Amino acid sequence: MQCRFMNLAPFILLVTQGCEQQPQRFSDNDIQEFREGLPGITEGCLNKIKYGGIEAMPSSTDECFEMTPARQWKGLWRREFENSRFCPSPAGSCSYQTAGDRVWLSGKALTSSASDEGLYEVEFVGRQTARKGSYGHLSAFDYEIIVDKVINLSPVSDDATLTE
C-alpha cells in the first residue's frame, strides 16, 4: 500500500507548488487606492496588479473594467491625434470642448473602418464602461465605449464641420 502512495508524491508536490502565492507587488492599501481612483475596476484586474505589478494590467479596457451590455449607438465621432471623442445623438457638434460627458471611442472594428482624422456620423454596436471614471488618452475622458461592430460610418464634409 505505501508503495502506491509513494508514486503520487511527485504529483502532489507539483500540484502544491503551483498553488503557492506570489509575493505582493502592491500593498492592500495601494490596491484600495486603485479601487477608489479607478471606479469600476474588477477584482480580477486588481489581483493581477497586486501580484504582477502595473505591467500586469491588461491593455484593453473591457479586460479590467465593468462594461454595460452591448447596444446600438448613434452620433458624431471626432477622430484626431490623441483624441477619439464620441457625442451621442442628437449632438450637433463634437469636439474635445463640447459640453457633456467626454466619451472615448475605441475598438478594432472602429479603427479598421476609419483611418483619417476628422468628424464622422457613426452608428455602431458597442459596450460602455459601467461607471464614470478616467479613460482614454491621458485618462481625460469620463467613459469609454468599445465598438464591436460598425453599422454606418460617414465622414462629415469640411464645409459642414460642426465643431464648437
The number of helices is 4
Structural class: alpha+beta
Biggest β-sheet strands, sense, barrel? 5 strands, mixed, barrel
Report mean pLDDT, rounded to a whole number: 85
Poorly predicted ranges: 8-16, 160-164
Helix content: 25-40%
Strand content: 25-35%
Sheet with most strands: strand arrangement: 1-2-3-5-4
N/C terminus separation: 83 Å
What string, H for helix and E for strand, traces the elements in order? HHHEEEHEE
Report on this structure.
- This protein is of the alpha+beta class and 164 residues long.
- The chain has 2 domains: 56 residues, no CATH class; 90 residues.
- The chain is 25% helix and 27% strand.
- It is built from 4 helices and 5 strands, in the order αααβββαββ.
- A 5-stranded mixed barrel has the order 1-2-3-5-4.
Task: Set out the fold topology.
Layout: H1 2-18, H2 28-37, H3 43-52, E1 71-80, E2 83-88, E3 103-106, H4 108-111, E4 118-128, E5 143-155
Parallel strand pairs: 3-5
Antiparallel strand pairs: 1-2, 1-4, 2-3, 4-5
Main attributes of the structure:
Lipoprotein; 4 helices; five-stranded mixed barrel; 164 residues; single chain; alpha+beta
Summarize the structure.
The chain is of the alpha+beta class and 164 residues long. Helix content is 25%, strand content 27%.
